[in-house]
Amino acid sequence: MNARNWSLGQLFPGAFPADADRSVTGVVFDSRKAAPGAVFVALAGAKADGARFIADAVARGATAIVSGQPRPQDLDGAIVFAQVGDPRLALSLAAAVVHPRQPATIVAVTGTSGKSSVADFTRQIFQVLGHEAASLGTVGIVTSKGSKYGSLTTPDPLSLHASLDKLAGEGITHLAMEASSHGLDQRRLDGVRLAAGAYLNLGRDHLDYHPTVEDYLDAKLRLWDLLPAGAPVVINRDGAFADKASAAAVAKGHPIIGVGCAGETLTLLEVLREGFSQRLQVRAQGREIEVVLPLVGDFMAGNALVAAGLAVAAGEAPEAALNALSGLVGVPGRLERVGSLKGGLAVVDFAHKPDALEAVLATLRPYAAGRLICVFGCGGDRDRGKRPVMGQIAADLADLAIVTDDNPRTEDPGAIRAEILAASPKLTEIGDRAKAIRHAVGLLGTGDVLVVAGKGHETGQIIGDRTLPFSDQDVVRAAIAEMDQ
Ligand SMILES: CC(=O)N[C@H]1[C@@H](OP(=O)(O)OP(=O)(O)OC[C@H]2O[C@@H](n3ccc(=O)[nH]c3=O)[C@H](O)[C@@H]2O)O[C@H](CO)[C@@H](O)[C@@H]1O[C@H](C)C(=O)N[C@@H](C)C(=O)N[C@H](CCC(=O)O)C(=O)O
Ligand SMILES: Nc1ncnc2c1ncn2[C@@H]1O[C@H](COP(=O)(O)OP(=O)(O)OP(=O)(O)O)[C@@H](O)[C@H]1O
Ligand SMILES: N[C@H](CCC[C@H](N)C(=O)O)C(=O)O
Ligand SMILES: [Mg+2]
User: Fold this and answer.
1) Is the domain of 235 the same as that of 371?
2) Taking every pair of C-alpha atoms in the chain, what is the biggest distance, in angstroms?
3) Which of 142, 218, 280, 363 is the most exposed place for a label (fewest CB within 10 A)?
4) Candidate from 112, 152, 154, 352 with most ligand 3 atoms within 8 A of CB, to mutate
5) Structural element, H or E, at residue 29
6) Ligand 3: distance of its center to the CA of 352 in Å?
7) Where does a domain end: 299, 327, 355?
8) Does residue 31 sit within a domain?
9) Interface predicted TM-score (ipTM) of this complex, two decimals
């Protein structure tokens, strides 16, 4: 809770006409965090209705309530109360008042796959071009001074605005952030002053939360509503549903920076694979520019161009943005080459959804003169429908696919594996993730490539409500060290 006070009129303009001058000590949306004098915003959530916790917030000292529902009849008369149409929006706007500073230039990227990579690459481009830059998303907050891990891709509005305020205070002028579909749907970014947005692609994910794919796409395209009039939008023209994303941007009057093979602003003309790098020919402003991208994979080239597009949207010269790509460093746990054993290569990747698994296996296939081996699983308490789909992809695209556990959370790990294994008799099963990885490393021989997919940068395995320390990279390295005798 912050030391200073705010008036309710400042925090929630128009919501408390009679009590606008009343001051509160802070804003909370979780009753358990309510301190004396706070305003509690009751949110209708996926698991619970926040209105049920109004009494709890008051018992802990809250003196004002904002809710989507009418005033509870038994609420103490001394407590001020406002009913608003969209409590999540009200919360986000209030969070931006409580934590007022933001980096001057903030860009956001949405899409099913590649957001973390694009946010990181955009930060790197901004840094190369001389700006104090940060990125914020699944891998946490990253600046030139280091990184701080956070558990959500798009944090809740109070944490998000506290971070933006702190970054601005530290002198960060440029920020690239991820906009998850949950974050957009739940209005977590509505108080962020964005300069530009980007759309990558759309595949199957989060259908446990979004009722349909259309609803999922609509949530992503809310990003355009958050941009000021005339702010540019970067579209990966090669991504699924790019036409819909661009039609929605045009309808809202946003100019488009199209990138990719079908892009009109940064046009990818040719890609030549050179070991673990690739040589890109890109046309920008009528000129052909050659970029040596020190990263593997067609989709990483696409991500890099979206990042360059965001830098252009933020006012950088296209050629300068493209030239900065030659110094890009890969993101932890995204096609990360961890080690080699007996002429075989081990890679760790964050693919935990069908499109990503398909893309990563297709990307690694040309590197596998021998066998392509895949160890993967599916998270518990997440979209069940993707399990057999991922099982089929692994069976089709890998020579050997081992199904293992990946954050079973509150589900029965064996039951999750069974849903994946049902896709194909070709799949094998080793439940314990460390054992599965060790077994796969032991199979490596000349020309083989092993990809351990699903956890990427994660440092824990979530079993029940406990998170046990676990790192795919550490297990791979330890297995290699043990077997490389
Ligand atoms: C499904 C989902 O998105 N849930 C998020 C949502 O919680 P919710 O509002 O649905 O919470 P709820 O449990 O139903 O409770 C409703 C309200 O009652 C309040 N409450 C609850 C208990 C109590 O005693 N008192 C009280 O006041 C809660 O604080 C909440 O405000 O809003 C919370 C605050 O913003 C989030 O922390 C929470 O994320 C949960 C932990 C989560 O796991 N989210 C994941 C699925 C997520 O958001 N993932 C995306 C995408 C990831 C990606 O693909 O990259 C992300 O951005 O990370
Ligand atoms: N443009 C892309 N198209 C398809 N797959 C991709 C793309 N970019 C990355 N991937 C795959 O998706 C995985 C996750 O990449 P990244 O973390 O950059 O995406 P994300 O959108 O942030 O994912 P999440 O929503 O899970 O945080 C990568 O490890 C890779 O397997
Ligand atoms: N942000 C994603 C990450 C999933 C990572 C994967 N390891 C899993 O647990 O399914 C989610 O929370 O759905
Ligand atoms: Mg991410």
Assistant:
1) no
2) 77
3) 218
4) 352
5) none
6) 7
7) 327
8) yes
9) 0.96
Note whether residue 212 is domain-resident: yes
Domain that holds residue 371: 336-483
Query: Are residues 344 and 316 part of one domain?
Result: no
Alpha-carbon gap, residue 208 to 228, rounded angstroms: 31
258 and 273 together in one domain:
yes
CA angle (181 as vertex; 237, 121 as ends), nearest 5: 55
Select from 117, 259, 364 the residue to mutate for testing ligand 2; criterion: most ligand atoms less than 8 Å from CB: 117
Q: Among 28, 62, 97, identify where a domain stops.
A: 97
Based on the domain organization, do 201 and 341 belong to the same domain?
no
What gap in Å lies between CA 331 and CA 117, rounded to an integer? 6
Q: Is 183 close to ligand 1, i.e. is its CB under 6 Å away?
A: yes
Question: Total structural domains in the chain?
Answer: 3
Pocket of ligand 3 (CB under 6 A): 138, 153, 352, 379, 382, 406-407, 454-455, 458
pLDDT in tens, 344-382: 999 999 999 999 999 999 999 999 999 999 999 999 999
Pocket test for ligand 3, best of 208, 407, 457 (most atoms within 8 A of CB): 407
Q: Cβ(472) to ligand 2 under 6 A?
A: no
Cα of 155 to ligand 4 centre, how many Å? 12
β partners of residue 395: none
Work out which ligand 2 atom sits closest to the CA atom of 180. 25
**pTM: predicted TM-score of the whole model, two decimal places:** 0.95
Looking at the DSSP assignment, which residues form a beta bridge with residue 176?
107, 135
Residue bearing the CA closest to ligand 3, atom 3: 352
Considering the domain architecture, whether residues 313 and 349 belong to the same structural domain is answered as: no
Nearest CA to ligand 1 atom 43: 152
Say whether both 128 and 116 belong to one domain: yes
SS3 418: helix
User: Per-residue pLDDT for 48 more than 70?
Assistant: yes
* Cβ atoms 213, 207 nearer than 8 A: yes
Are residues 228 and 365 located together in one domain of the fold?
no
Annotated binding residue 188: yes
Q: CATH no. for residue 306?
A: 3.40.1190.10
First-residue to last-residue Cα distance in the chain: 55
Task: Give residue 3's pLDDT band: very low, low, confident or very high (50, 70, 90).
Answer: low
Please give the distance, rounded to the nearest whole angstrom, from the Cα atom of residue 413 to the centre of ligand 2: 24
Q: What is the CATH number of the domain that holds 13?
A: 3.40.1390.10
Atom index in ligand 1 nearest the CA of residue 116 equals 55
Average pLDDT over residues 263-276: 96
Determine the distance separating the centroid of ligand 3 and the alpha carbon of 293, expressed in angstroms: 28
Q: How many CB atoms lie within 10 A of CB 117?
A: 29
In a domain, 1, yes or no: no
Question: For position 307, what pLDDT does the model report?
Answer: 98
CATH number, position 384: 3.90.190.20
Q: How far is the CA of 45 from the centre of ligand 1 (A)?
A: 7
CA dist 6 → 9, 46, 93, 385 (Å): 8, 30, 13, 46
Residue 79 lies in a domain: yes
Atom 11, ligand 3: residue with shortest CA distance: 382
